[in-house]
Specification:
Layout lengths: L12 E5 L2 E5 L4 E6 L4 H16 L3 E6 L6 H12 L6 E3 L3 H8 L7 H6 L2 H4 L2 H7 E2 L2 E2 L2 E2 L1 E4 L2 E5 H6 L8 H13 L3 E3 L5 H16 L1 H9 L3 H4 L2 H14 L11 H9 L3 E5 L3 H8 L8 E5 L5 E4 L2 E4 L5 H14 L2 H11 L2 E2 L11 H16 L2 E3 L9 H15 L5 H15 L1
Parallel strand pairs: 3-4, 3-5, 11-12, 14-17
Antiparallel strand pairs: 1-2, 5-15, 6-7, 8-15, 9-14, 9-16, 10-12, 10-13
Helix pairs in contact: 1-14, 1-16, 9-10, 9-12, 9-18, 12-19, 18-19
This protein binds beta-D-glucopyranose (BGC).
The site of beta-D-glucopyranose (BGC) has 11 residues, from loops.
InterPro entries: Bact_solute-bd_prot1 (IPR050490), SBP (IPR006059)
Function: Part of a binding-protein-dependent transport system for a sugar.
Subcellular location: Periplasm
């Protein structure tokens, strides 16, 4: 179906249902709760808003500022508890299943089946979108978390190559620090600490260790010497961050790399959306490389629809689900957002070199068994367990706690959260 073919002014919406085009004399409505509020994010979500409007829909925006989605999660809970759920909300990973178990999600299997989602999505992504065999969410993209972003000019001026081991990273940071440059741009929010932490777990421990520690929550892995070494590296990294990082948003940290105030940022590829929105080019103004070590940490954004009464809202949910999985949206949105499409049949020709690397590495990691869910971005664990880990990571990063004490606290916190 060609979405653009429908006139925006049309009050008659046509939506797909049960494989057939059904005509309905309602204007599809959607109130959409999301947390895409930075420059690159806002540009990306505008693609969806425009497509929704072009198909006769009325979009009510409910953006909740705060990277990583913690504030959005709180806002969503308040809305659902007060019996006023939004039509759709940006949620992902195991929390989709948590909401499903509360009995508040709408079943979007009709749209999914009519549009062959089962064949268009990799099994690993499809499994996150299904609840008890029905489709309960629609995937937007695949973000990779384990990336380092660098200011190309600063690296060249200081004869630094992109680091391929954590020792090389530390050596580069020492050189930069001696030259009076902030080595690592970082913000002061717990989820940003968790983002860096999980890349260090993957890099120093390897994919099997990551799986045991942050997916299986194996007490032996959590309490191991490897985990002590991970916290040692976190302490080292803390020394490369400037003093004003408290409370800083992730996109302001990206801006520091962009403006030449800092050399590196460790952040998922939504950071690339910021560079691109500012007109910067990969390989020219900024450089991307995966963080040291093997593997790929994936983070899939998705929307779930909430049980809301009324024909117009139901039509809005169907239209939204269909558009999000549409090939045009998956291409245009992800080019802006920094991610790659969730659908496997969208050509990446027009995508930049970082996206090409992401796609190739994802395929190789999937074959090699090192494609792993990001714990820091809600793909691996239920909220309580992820929160227990993040509390320890951030308490350690923001104090002079020893690595041994952090490891002890980590094993206790995880045990108490089960
Ligand atoms: C989301 C991204 C978002 C980032 C910063 C991540 O958890 O998956 O879509 O851009 O947080 O808010």
């Amino acid at each position: 179906m060609k979405y653009g073919a429908f006139a925006m002014a049309s009050a008659i919406a046509i939506v797909a249902a049960n494989g057939a085009l059904a005509e309905s004399h309602v204007t599809p409505e959607a109130e959409v709760l999301h947390y895409w509020t930075s420059g690159g994010e806002a540009k990306s979500v505008a693609v969806l808003q425009e497509e929704f409007a072009a198909n006769g829909g009325t979009w009510t925006d409910m953006p909740v500022a705060g990277g990583g989605g913690d504030a959005a999660g709180t806002a969503l809970r308040a809305r659902v508890l007060s019996g006023n759920a939004p039509t759709a909300a940006q949620i992902k990973g195991p929390s989709i299943q948590e909401w499903y178990q509360e009995g508040v999600l709408a079943d979007i299997s009709d749209v999914a089946e009519a549009n062959n989602w089962g064949e268009l999505l990799p099994a690993s992504i499809a499994s996150h979108m299904k609840c008890d065999g029905t489709w309960c969410a629609v995937p937007v993209n695949v973000h990779r978390v384990d990336w380092i972003w660098a200011n190309t000019e600063i690296l060249a001026a200081n004869n630094i190559e992109m680091p391929t081991t954590w020792d090389e990273f530390n050596a580069a940071a020492e050189t930069l620090q001696a030259a009076g440059i902030i080595p690592l741009a970082h913000g002061g929010q717990a989820w940003q600490d968790a983002t860096v932490f999980e890349t260090v777990v993957l890099g120093l421990g390897g994919p099997d260790f990551y799986q045991k520690a942050l997916v299986d929550l194996d007490p032996e892995a959590l309490g191991s010497d490897t985990m002590v070494a991970v916290f040692d590296q976190m302490r080292t990294l803390r020394g490369y961050v400037d003093d004003n990082f408290s409370g800083r948003d992730w996109n302001l940290a990206t801006a520091m790399v962009m403006n030449g105030e800092a050399a590196f940022q460790i952040m998922g590829d939504w950071a690339k959306g910021e560079f691109l929105a500012a007109g910067q080019e990969p390989g020219v103004d900024f450089t991307c490389a995966s963080t040291p070590g093997e593997g790929f940490l994936y983070n899939v954004d998705s929307f779930a629809m909430f049980e809301v009464g009324g024909e117009a809202k139901e039509a809005g949910q169907e239209l939204l689900a269909e558009l999000v999985m549409g090939p045009t949206f998956q291409e245009v949105f992800n080019m802006n957002k920094g991610s790659i499409p969730a659908r496997t049949d969208v050509a990446l020709d027009g995508f930049d070199s970082c996206a090409q690397t992401s796609s190739a590495d994802m395929a190789a990691s999937s074959d090699g068994g090192s494609l792993l869910p990001s714990y820091a971005h809600g793909m691996a664990l239920f909220g309580a367990q992820a929160g227990a880990i993040t509390d320890v990571v951030t308490a350690h990063f923001n104090s002079d706690m020893s690595s041994e004490d952090a490891v002890q606290m980590l094993t206790d916190a995880v045990a108490n959260s089960m």
